[in-house]
Amino acid sequence: xxxxxxxxxxxxxxxxxxxxxxxxxxxxxxxxxxxxxxxxxxxxxxxxxxxxxxxxxxxxxxxxxxxxxxxxxxxxxxxxxxxxxxxxxxxxxxxxxxxxxxxxxxxxxxxxxxxxxxxxxxxxxxxxxxxxxxxxxxxxxxxxxxxxxxxxxxxxxxxxxxxxxxxxxxxxxxxxxxxxxxxxxxxxxxxxxxxxxxxxxxxxxxxxxxxxxxxxxxxxxxxxxxxxxxxxxxxxxxxxxxxxxxxxxxxxxxxxxxxxxxxxxxxxxxxxxxxxxxxxxxxxxxxxxxxxxxxxxxxxxxxxxxxxxxxxxxxxxxxxxxxxxxxxxxxxxxxxxxxxxxxxxxxxxxxxxxxxxxxxxxxxxxxxxxxxxxxxxxxxxxxxxxxxxxxxxxxxxxxxxxxxxxxxxxxxxxxxxxxxxxxxxxxxxxxxxxxxxxxxxxxxxxxxxxxxxxxxxxxxxxxxxx
Amino acid sequence: xxxxxxxxxxxxxxxxxxxxxxxxxxxxxxxxxxxxxxxxxxxxxxxxxxxxxxxxxxxxxxxxxxxxxxxxxxxxxxxxxxxxxxxxxxxxxxxxxxxxxxxxxxxxxxxxxxxxxxxxxxxxxxxxxxxxxxxxxxxxxxxxxxxxxxxxxxxxxxxxxxxxxxxxxxxxxxxxxxxxxxxxxxxxxxxxxxxxxxxxxxxxxxxxxxxxxxxxxxxxxxxxxxxxxxxxxxxxxxxxxxxxxxxxxxxxxxxxxxxxxxxxxxxxxxxxxxxxxxxxxxxxxxxxxxxxxxxxx
Amino acid sequence: xxxxxxxxxxxxxxxxxxxxxxxxxxxxxxxxxxxxxxxxxxxxxxxxxxxxxxxxxxxxxxxxxxxxxxxxxxxxxxxxxxxxxxxxxxxxxxxxxxxxxxxxxxxxxxxxxxxxxxxxxxxxxxxxxxxxxxxxxxxxxxxxxxxxxxxxxxxxxxxxxxxxxxxxxxxxxxxxxxxxxxxxxxxxxxxxxxxxxxxxxxxxxxxxxxxxxxxxxxxxxxxxxxxxxxxxxxxxxxxxxxxxxxxxxxxxxxxxxxxxxxxxxxxxxxxxxxxxxxxxxxxxxxxxxxxxxxxxxx
Lengths: 466, 297, 298
Fold this sequence. Notes:
The complex is a heterotrimer of chains A (466), B (297) and C (298).
Chain A: H1 3-30, E1 51-58, H2 64-80, E2 84-90, H3 97-106, E3 112-116, H4 120-125, H5 149-152, E4 156-157, E5 160-161, E6 163-170, E7 172-176, H6 177-182, H7 194-205, E8 212-215, H8 222-233, H9 251-266, H10 280-286, E9 290-295, H11 298-307, E10 314-318, E11 329-338, H12 344-358, H13 368-373, H14 388-401, H15 410-415, E12 419-420, H16 426-442, H17 448-464
Parallel strand pairs in A: 1-2, 8-9, 11-12
Antiparallel strand pairs in A: 3-11, 4-5, 6-11, 7-9, 7-10
Helix pairs in contact in A: 8-16, 9-16, 10-11, 16-17
Chain B: H1 4-44, E1 47-50, E2 53-56, H2 60-67, H3 69-102, H4 107-115, H5 122-133, H6 139-146, H7 158-186, H8 190-198, H9 203-214, H10 216-230, H11 235-240, H12 253-263, H13 267-296
Antiparallel strand pairs in B: 1-2
Chain C: H1 2-10, H2 16-20, H3 22-53, H4 58-61, H5 76-84, H6 87-119, H7 124-133, H8 139-151, H9 165-171, H10 175-186, H11 190-198, H12 203-214, H13 216-232, H14 235-240, H15 249-256, H16 262-293
Helix pairs in contact in C: 3-16, 5-16, 6-9, 6-10, 6-13, 10-13, 11-12, 13-16
């Protein structure tokens, strides 16, 4: 009997709990975040005329310096625009496939949301991107006319503009200058042919102590991504021009795989740890265990900011090819799109915010003086998306605040390899090629012809389902 | 009270109303979060969504998944995982429980130790296993190396990858099964062993003729539960090998569903594959229900 | 002989008599030692490496061969993991979800199981059958339609995304728990309840004063399952709580795994494991006796 009061108390508490459900549900509904649907035209704007916008891909707390700089920038922006309130969503990584897809299915993206260039078709298929053509003009985005045409066109569909690009990269070869020196190689002269890569990697691997000369991906869709880049360098392409058929089951595709297989099993310069996805090679490089790998310049920023590496230790050369003159390289980038449910006021505010944070000289990501003062990397050859006066101004500002020898990137910049955009339905295609990459890097007896024909069939399947 | 007929009906109605009042919370939750999504799932299997437009496509989705080369591979892997998990995650806990049941000391400690991994967040355990499996600086290769045994690439070896996943999964989940078996073993009357011993039965024969028959019900229930739950394995391969592994060596049906839905945004195909898996699991579940029915009698 | 008869009721596979022989004793102690050593190595060893791995420098954490103990202590790794990764927040979220799910399941599932077992309403069996049918549906299969449901609840049109309700309410749909509870309630003799009814106790009274006190073991089991399920769930919380400040430990560590160095990741895992270990050690008696007290007659 002693427990009877206890039980009834529990029941009472439970019923109290249930009673609060109704209340809190209503509360939840009322306070639902600014990402909520714009069914009442005025969502996001309150009576006082303040427009609230949410934006994702703000730096996470695990990156203290960028995190503080972002918050400072938002405070400055809000001060200058008292009628705009910004909700930052601090995420890393900026896009997790499952979450992104779920958000597209439910229309729950933030008002201003981060996407890869390659996500455009998926976002449009889900009907989630607002048409921002009329909002993006030289008066709202002053650098508009200096965008490289190949960059801004990634955001267009049927003549309408859906996103604002803010980074663009082309892939090259990142080298570990420190290990180059230790191995007696000249770090100012990165290898440009695969034969030189093999020679240099062997010299670096000989250093022992678990150091590998060359690394590459074979998981998490990154394997296919690099396959695509290495194929571009040889003058091939993943798909036919219309993007309806696979185009790599040929001598060029074979050359890419054979070359990696040789690096792994004939030259023995890649180590037994394979199946790597994005984030792993960076860790090895930052820990001084890796000599070279293919990447975009922003990997160096990542290694410095997140992994505590030292940028003076890295340099870049162009993506390796057979001739030493790569025919092309994979380019890609990120942009901000706008939720289809955004009100005109929200789109306007969002465009203004993106311009302030990412596209204005001396501000946000271009605040080189501040980056230098906080020991962040300045001087990397990025973002590669401007030409004309904007590019000249950016280069001058960069040189003035450079925190690294800009000459470390001469070889990469001088090669000026043209960027090829990513294949259509890129992520699904990359995923298919992961298998081939994983096989040549983990199976000494991999059958390359068979891998390619299987992958080709699967890619055709993927493309035919579009 | 005099018109018993009327009051009986009234009582009956009231009893039913009370009972449904008790049920309402759970039923509402089931309706919203289980039954309604199930119906939605079924409908989606025959639809395609493009540019916000939904169209009926009949058997197209099913046709597509059956012709996907990954389909056969994923079934084979799911089967392989289930079999391995039965050996490790089913037989081993029983063996461990039998041994623990014989020990007269440190009982509490051993139980705590076995159950400890169950309490860890799985992603933390898997991060740890990934660290141990690393071919270059992992603990496992180091142990093998110091014993002068050949080392391995573990998760990167297509023929070992699934085994590695099962080992991690068993370590994480074995505790619950051990404790359930222990409970069952403690329910066996000692007289039965006594009698068997008087008949001259040795240790193995006692296990075979007393222990196993006495725990048959719980063993068969656990077997079915194990099959149904291992066929749904997701998080282990997802974290350890990114899902598919080398040569699709760890692609399971559930991971394939995930891929259709979240990498290719093909909800139609994901739902269709879900239906197929559902039919297969339904067979096992029907068995489960039958066994538990027999148990209740 | 008296001891032998006592033994016969409580004995297990091997009798005390056998163990008392010298030969038996030797074997017993050998087995005991082996079991203790192997179990400690297999189940505690990895935890040791997890905790010490977090104390190593980045270099040492990925050194080959691995070091048995940190040669240079780097406790700062732990403060980095704790401070920068918001682990406190993740932990708090996970506990909130787990305890909330527990409360909802105890209220709704116990009530439902009691009604199905003892009140026997019309359509009761059909409802139970439909509940059990959900057992065979892999959670992953339902993730997409479930997500769309949580996003916009039919009829009431509420968005539960990023709220604890998105985890609490679906957790009630644990057919396995209802099934366990119902089976246990079935075993409570009906005449006890009839006696209570004659005394004028209503169904709520009967449930609280007779059924629940008798069902303590099964309630313990169900509670543990309820907590552990939330604690272990990965994909659903990842999708249902996209806001990084509302994530669970599992989702948080998974997101991290791409962005931090090996030793910080290991430290974060260790930190996330510690509270559970402490919780478990404090309540181990209740948890383990709960798991075994519902002695399952085979």
